[in-house]
């Protein structure tokens, strides 16, 4: 008796790979994998990539708008400063006194105006700290009276110099720093060709007291630096009595432009002249001086010079691709362009890495599926090939055969057992049923018995009469289900009544069809929901086997898209809060009212329940002291200090380190939130110092029940520099007023003394 095994097939039925069962199984596995993966890939390409690019552009535009607002506000404050100073009676009095002193000195020295100015130039040139030359002249007396005031003003507002210019001959009667332009004529002197000349002429022709003029940055030999001038007329009785000119340094503009703004390693903010497209700010990437030497000439700068605001992808001067957000600026007639730019490759590196990983995982998945398809196909096809060969040998008359197929409980195992039984039966009655066996071997299910069975063999005939119709029905049902699936009809169901060993076929087919329908329905439902903007949708089906990967991929896609939308919403909330906070800080508010407005807005916007605002002052020993200036929903208690030294308590420690401190377990005795129904301790405490440039200006302390999110903490970090600027401005305004009062008091005493002498 010969044994037929998987490795002992002498004859193989050769079929086309696409027609073979193994080929069909592998194609089915690939189709089931590729369809959902390709759907997810298309979803990522059309939804995630555009959303990520929009987020990068919005961030670039936000940085552009923030820096444009900072530069505009800086010059707005400086122009307001010079207008306020020009309107002060002390400024007009100083100009008049210097003119009168020069006229009296001309008579006393017997010199003309040029010679007289050269005389005082020899006494004061390069001596910015000299208050009185000690020559007993009227000029030195006037200089001693007003020089401390103007010197303190220049130091307080970080100007390079302050000039008082006589309107007729353009002589610089007074300057704080006594640079080389002191006591020379703006019209005919050595600096008549500098950018000081045109701004003097503009102010001289002004008809309104509020007129201000600004020059572009240019190199000024007297200061040996890049500077710009702002000027305004000093008027009395609607006539120009003189010109007040302030000299501004380059450093504040560079500080604004080079302030870190989250643009990465390649990001940069650039200030460019609209007239010659040359840089007006230093580059953060170049150690060489690029100011007024490097030309920024590309599509974005030209569009901004034409008055447009927008975003462009350009090739810069070095041939590198850049993403540029641009806008024009107009500062009192001076036209500049503000550009914020970064390298697109750096911005999109994360999404490119994600795509590379997705492609890698996709390729690995294909290889795994192919291996599984080969293994499963081999396990299914090889036993069928063995049984096919047995049927062929039986059809050829070989009945002494056994089936060497691994026993299993599936349909193939049942079929192998049936073959073994059939061989035993056929060995006993091979001569009587040869023609029936041959018919079955060639697939003819219409074969019938041609002989008359007698005795026990009659039962065989009866069973054959029953088995053949049942087999025909099973095959027909399987064919109609297979054809329905091939045509994409997932609603097809088995219709036949399966009996005996065929019974497991029906529930297996129904289960497979139901699982496939659930997979397709979930893919359609998730895709439609994502397309309609619903980002919380998740697959609902319980997937088995390899289908579980589809559910994971769908859930990951929905989760990533939701995270992108949440980040966009956080950025919108952050920008809105910063804008509203800047609106709260505008205007000439007294520092107490300004502090109250700031702490109230921060607590309201962050849903904080209590807040305190501390400002740096000096104590009697001239040491820095943090004093509570304003609060929100805070009730002062006995034995609780409202002022701290540096390093004292959380407030003092945060100020000393100039770093924020976050406390998540606040002691009961530290601070309380009170209302009409009771009181409670905040669960979280945030202590944030704010600075102006590198100088500590104060500390903000906020208490909340809920932990502040990362975006709320980022909002506080971005808000601190603006708060520092606002507090510094308010303090400077207060100091200027105090200086004015101090300068008026000696003048008043001198006048009273003169009146006493006369009387």
From TrEMBL:
<feature type="transmembrane region" description="Helical">
    <location>
        <begin position="25"/>
        <end position="45"/>
    </location>
</feature>
<keyword id="KW-0812">Transmembrane</keyword>
<feature type="transmembrane region" description="Helical">
    <location>
        <begin position="357"/>
        <end position="381"/>
    </location>
</feature>
<keyword id="KW-1133">Transmembrane helix</keyword>
<dbReference type="InterPro" id="IPR029016">
    <property type="entry name" value="GAF-like_dom_sf"/>
</dbReference>
<comment type="similarity">
    <text>Belongs to the methyl-accepting chemotaxis (MCP) protein family.</text>
</comment>
<protein>
    <submittedName>
        <fullName>Methyl-accepting chemotaxis protein</fullName>
    </submittedName>
</protein>
<dbReference type="GO" id="GO:0007165">
    <property type="term" value="P:signal transduction"/>
</dbReference>
<dbReference type="GO" id="GO:0006935">
    <property type="term" value="P:chemotaxis"/>
</dbReference>
<keyword id="KW-0472">Membrane</keyword>
<feature type="domain" description="HAMP">
    <location>
        <begin position="378"/>
        <end position="431"/>
    </location>
</feature>
<keyword id="KW-0145">Chemotaxis</keyword>
<dbReference type="InterPro" id="IPR003018">
    <property type="entry name" value="GAF"/>
</dbReference>
<dbReference type="InterPro" id="IPR033479">
    <property type="entry name" value="dCache_1"/>
</dbReference>
<keyword id="KW-1003">Cell membrane</keyword>
<dbReference type="GO" id="GO:0005886">
    <property type="term" value="C:plasma membrane"/>
</dbReference>
<dbReference type="Pfam" id="PF00672">
    <property type="entry name" value="HAMP"/>
</dbReference>
<dbReference type="Pfam" id="PF02743">
    <property type="entry name" value="dCache_1"/>
</dbReference>
<dbReference type="GO" id="GO:0004888">
    <property type="term" value="F:transmembrane signaling receptor activity"/>
</dbReference>
<dbReference type="InterPro" id="IPR003660">
    <property type="entry name" value="HAMP_dom"/>
</dbReference>
<dbReference type="InterPro" id="IPR051310">
    <property type="entry name" value="MCP_chemotaxis"/>
</dbReference>
<dbReference type="Pfam" id="PF13185">
    <property type="entry name" value="GAF_2"/>
</dbReference>
């Amino acid at each position: 008796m010969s044994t037929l095994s998987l490795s002992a097939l002498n004859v193989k039925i050769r079929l086309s790979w696409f027609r073979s069962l193994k080929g069909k199984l592998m194609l089915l596995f690939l189709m089931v994998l590729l369809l959902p993966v390709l759907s997810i890939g298309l979803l990522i390409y059309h939804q995630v990539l555009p959303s990520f690019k929009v987020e990068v552009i919005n961030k670039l535009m936000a940085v552009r708008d923030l820096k444009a607002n900072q530069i505009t506000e800086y010059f707005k404050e400086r122009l307001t400063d010079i207008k306020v100073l020009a309107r002060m009676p002390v400024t007009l009095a100083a100009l008049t006194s210097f003119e009168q002193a020069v006229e009296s000195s001309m008579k006393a020295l017997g010199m003309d105006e040029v010679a007289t100015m050269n005389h005082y130039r020899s006494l004061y040139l390069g001596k910015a700290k000299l208050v009185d030359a000690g020559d007993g002249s009227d000029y030195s007396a006037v200089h001693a009276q007003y020089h401390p005031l103007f010197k303190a003003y220049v130091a307080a507002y970080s100007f390079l110099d302050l000039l008082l210019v006589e309107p007729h001959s353009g002589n610089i009667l007074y300057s704080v720093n006594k640079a080389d332009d002191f006591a020379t004529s703006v019209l005919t002197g050595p600096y008549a060709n500098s950018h000081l000349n045109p701004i003097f002429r503009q102010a001289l022709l002004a008809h309104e007291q509020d007129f201000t003029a600004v020059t572009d940055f240019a190199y000024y030999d007297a200061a040996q630096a890049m500077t710009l001038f702002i000027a305004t007329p000093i008027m009395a009785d609607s006539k120009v009595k003189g010109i007040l000119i302030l000299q501004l340094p380059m450093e504040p503009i560079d500080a604004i432009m080079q302030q870190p703004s989250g643009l990465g390693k390649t990001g940069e903010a650039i200030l460019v002249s609209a007239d010659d497209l040359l840089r007006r700010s230093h580059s953060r990437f170049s150690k060489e001086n690029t100011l007024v030497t490097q030309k920024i000439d590309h599509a974005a700068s030209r569009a901004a010079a034409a008055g447009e605001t927008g975003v462009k992808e350009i090739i810069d001067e070095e041939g590198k691709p850049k993403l540029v957000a641009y806008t024009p600026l107009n500062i009192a007639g001076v036209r500049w362009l503000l550009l914020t730019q970064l390298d697109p490759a750096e911005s999109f590196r994360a999404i490119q890495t994600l795509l590379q990983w997705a492609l890698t995982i996709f390729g690995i998945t294909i290889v795994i599926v192919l291996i599984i398809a080969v293994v499963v196909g081999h396990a299914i096809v090889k036993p069928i090939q063995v049984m096919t060969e047995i049927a062929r040998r039986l059809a050829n008359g070989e009945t002494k055969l056994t089936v060497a197929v691994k026993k299993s409980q599936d349909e193939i195992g049942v079929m192998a057992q049936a073959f073994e039984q059939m061989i035993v039966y056929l060995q006993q009655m091979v001569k009587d049923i040869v023609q029936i066996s041959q018919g079955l071997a060639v697939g003819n299910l219409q074969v019938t018995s041609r002989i008359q069975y007698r005795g026990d063999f009659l039962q065989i005939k009866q069973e054959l009469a029953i088995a053949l119709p049942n087999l025909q029905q099973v095959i027909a049902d399987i064919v109609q289900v297979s054809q329905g699936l091939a045509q994409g009809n997932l609603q097809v169901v088995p219709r036949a009544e399966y009996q005996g060993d065929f019974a497991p076929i029906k529930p297996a087919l129904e289960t497979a069809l139901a699982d496939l329908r659930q997979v397709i329905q979930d893919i359609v439902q998730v895709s439609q929901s994502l397309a309609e903007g619903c980002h919380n949708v998740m697959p609902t089906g319980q997937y088995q086997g390899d289908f579980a990967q589809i559910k994971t991929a769908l859930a990951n896609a929905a989760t990533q898209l939701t995270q992108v939308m949440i980040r966009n919403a956080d950025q919108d909330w952050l920008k809105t809060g910063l804008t509203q906070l800047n609106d709260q800080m505008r205007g000439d508010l007294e520092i107490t009212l300004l502090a109250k407005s700031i702490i109230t807005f921060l607590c309201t916007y962050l849903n904080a329940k209590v807040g305190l605002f501390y400002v740096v002052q000096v104590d009697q020993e001239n040491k820095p002291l943090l004093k509570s200036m304003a609060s929100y929903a805070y009730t002062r208690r006995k034995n609780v200090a409202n002022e701290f030294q540096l390093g004292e308590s959380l407030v003092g420690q945060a100020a000393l380190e100039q770093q924020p401190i976050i406390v998540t377990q606040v002691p009961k005795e530290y601070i309380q939130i009170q209302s009409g129904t009771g009181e409670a301790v905040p669960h979280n405490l945030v202590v944030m110092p704010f600075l102006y440039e590198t100088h500590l200006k104060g500390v903000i302390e906020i208490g909340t029940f809920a932990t502040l999110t990362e975006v709320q903490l980022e909002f506080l970090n971005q808000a601190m520099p603006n708060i520092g600027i606002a507090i510094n401005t308010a303090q400077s305004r207060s100091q200027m007023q105090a200086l004015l009062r101090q300068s008026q008091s000696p003048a008043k005493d001198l006048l009273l003394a003169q009146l006493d002498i006369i009387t």
